[in-house]
Amino acid sequence: MLTAKIGKVGKVLICGMKGVGKTTLLEQLIYGNVNMDTELHPTIEDIYVASVDTGRGGARETLRIYDSAGLQGKGQLPRHYLYFPDGYVLVYDPTDPSSLDMLADIKTDIDRNKEKKDNVAIIVLANMRARNRRDSPASPPIQVTQPQSQQQQPDPVESVLNRANSWCARERIKHYTVNAMERPSLYEPFISLCARLHPPPTKSSFPQLRQVMQKTQKNDS
Ligand SMILES: Nc1nc2c(ncn2[C@@H]2O[C@H](COP(=O)(O)OP(=O)(O)OP(=O)(O)O)[C@@H](O)[C@H]2O)c(=O)[nH]1
């Protein structure tokens, strides 16, 4: 008799403003085939399945990742996205502060519907978009020396990242800076999200209960 056990599949939705790089991140994470010249089209909806090694004794866990259409205007997710996911990956582009503001709206929406599904895991990714080589020549042809008052202006990307850090700390969600062009930068957020969605089975401290559980497992197999 075939007794293969199918483990729980973690369902994750990746969402955020239109064009922040959601599909690029997923294509890079799963296939590793994205470069500066890759052309991607706006998403309607796609599903990716990832088999993740969370480093717990070699067993692999499965994530089903739903890539959603980027949002515009008010950050309101289509209603069905509030019910099925076990986890959310919220993505923004630190060069566009409004893409971070939108995540706050999305998070509020998720929280409002939490009673329908408890224990939802959320992470936030800042996609540090490496600029296209065509956009940024190695050394600009004309060097402009800025007046001192301008030099002291805080870096706008840095201040968006700081704002994101404070918001994530308040909301108790993990904030990662990643770069869609650097695959290794994507591993940690997805591995830790996967580990949260697949917690190790808890060992009972009651020996009798443990024996009953072991017996049941034997009978199942
Ligand atoms: N240079 C550069 N381009 C990027 C990066 N990430 C995304 N892009 C480009 O930005 C555009 C939009 O990227 P997508 O991954 O399609 O963005 P998305 O958030 O999935 O877009 P929607 O599906 O429309 O919401 C594409 O042309 C990508 O090639 C990056 O890190 N660097």
From TrEMBL:
SMART domains: RAS
UniProt entry tagged with the keyword Metal-binding: no
InterPro entries the record matches: KBRS, P-loop_NTPase, Small_GTPase
Ranges annotated as biased composition (Polar residues): 203-221
Gene3D superfamilies documented for this protein: P-loop containing nucleotide triphosphate hydrolases
Biased composition (Low complexity): 141-158
GO biological process: negative regulation of canonical NF-kappaB signal transduction; Ral protein signal transduction
Example GO molecular function: GTPase activating protein binding
Entry annotated with the keyword NAD: no
Assigned protein family: Belongs to the small GTPase superfamily. Ras family. KappaB-Ras subfamily.
Name of the protein described by the UniProt record: NF-kappa-B inhibitor-interacting Ras-like protein
Organism: Bactrocera dorsalis
